[in-house]
Amino acid sequence: MIHELRVYHCAPGRLPALNARFQNITLKFFEKYGIKPVGFWTTLVGNSNQTLTYLLEWESLAEREQKWGAFQQDQEWIAKRAETEAQAIIVERIENSFLMPTGYSALR
C-alpha cells in the first residue's frame, strides 16, 4: 500500500472555490474511477492558509497510473474543471509525494 500526499496551493482567496469543487464535483469523479481518498485538510497554522492537503490510497504505482490517468483524461471532468475556473484560476501550484509506511506506522 502506498499513499499519495497532494498539496494544492490556491490563488489568493480561491480556497473556498477549490473546496466547493472537491465537494460537488471532484469526489464524484474519484468514486467513478475508484480513487480512494483518505482525508482532506486545510491549514490552520502554517506557511499559508490558502492550501488544501489531501491523501490518496493506492495498492501500487501501476494502479495510480491507470486510475489517475483515466480521471485526468475524462472529458466531462476537463469541462467541469474549466467551468469552475472560467472567472479565475483556482490552483496555482500542486505538490505531490508518494509515501510508503514504515514498519511502525499505524496507517499502512
The helix content is 25-40%
Characterize the biggest β-sheet. 4 strands, antiparallel
Q: Oligomer, anyone?
A: single chain
CATH class: Alpha Beta
Describe this structure as you would to a colleague.
- The chain is of the alpha+beta class and 108 residues long.
- It has a single domain (2-99), classed as Alpha-Beta Plaits (2-Layer Sandwich), CATH 3.30.70.100.
- Helices cover 39% and strands 31% of the residues.
- It has three helices and four strands.
- Strands 2-3-1-4 form a four-stranded antiparallel beta sheet.
- α1 (15-33) packs across α2 and α1 (15-33) packs antiparallel against α3.
Keywords summarizing the entry:
alpha+beta; Alpha-Beta Plaits; 31% strand; 4-stranded antiparallel β-sheet; single chain; 4 strands; globular; 108 residues
List the helices and strands and how they pair.
Layout: E1 2-10, H1 15-33, E2 36-42, E3 51-58, H2 61-73, H3 75-84, E4 91-99
Antiparallel strand pairs: 1-3, 1-4, 2-3
Brief sketch in words of this structure:
The protein is α+β, with helices and mostly antiparallel strands and 108 residues long. The protein is built from three helices and four strands.
